[in-house]
Design brief:
Blueprint: H1 3-7, H2 11-30, H3 37-67
Helix pairs in contact: 2-3
């Protein structure tokens, strides 16, 4: 997921996406020591970074509204 794609979305869409990503992150964490650990660990990193991207874009949007 690219930051440019996220900037084109509205705040409610970003909030929904963030919720989905956090649920996925939780589920991946709860899988524990499953046999497909290598692919799971790479997905955990992707999801963590996607969560950070979404939060960053949400902050940018709220700051731009605050600053005018």
């Amino acid at each position: 997921m690219k930051a440019n794609e996220l900037r084109q979305k509205a705040m409610p869409e970003l909030q929904d996406l963030l919720l989905e990503l956090l649920k996925e992150q939780f589920n991946l964490r709860m899988q524990g020591g499953s046999p497909d650990q290598i692919s799971r660990s790479s997905r955990v990193r992707e999801v963590r970074r996607d969560v950070a991207r979404v939060k960053t874009i949400m902050t940018e949007i709220s700051m731009s509204k605050f600053n005018g």
